[in-house]
Amino acid sequence: MLGLASVLSLFGLFGLVGTFAGCRRPPQGKPLADPRLEHGRQIYLADCEPCHGPGGHGDGVVAKSQPVPPRDFVSCGFKYSSGPPGSLPSDDDLFHTVTFGVATSTMPSFATLPESDRRAVIAYVKTFCARFGGTS
Ligand code: HEC
Fold it and tell me: Which residues, 6+ apart, have CB-to-CB distance to 48 below 8 Å?
């Protein structure tokens, strides 16, 4: 028998999903020519822009309320690199950050996004930082 508690928790679950879905904004701006980057951009607009900002400056609408400021990608101020100090993170470093999040800040884990989506949004994020030189 399906107890009242499980029915209620199902509603709760859908309510939660609905809340997140409601936060998603319709596609904006001109689509990018590269389909993978455009896919990454759509994920970015839905999942990253509220913190990291439309232009990747770390100035999204909720940025000010984060105890640790969201990374400004344009100034390339990345912290989590497996390379020597000052080196840019590798794709795998970025993949690790996006997959697991950062426990000491509000950078969330995106482990539930398909791997191809995580890779696509990383490729898009790299376009904000000129030091990557478009070689992703
Ligand atoms: C709730 C706010 C929030 C959201 C949403 C968010 N981030 Fe972050 N992000 C942060 C914060 C805060 C930091 C800084 C973490 C630190 O300095 O420890 C950060 C840092 C990063 C970094 C920097 C890693 C480094 O080496 O310095 C990357 C890359 C990143 N986020 C990617 C993303 C991507 C991609 C998304 C969307 C899929 C996303 N973030 C969504 C808050 C957010």
Answer: 60, 121, 125
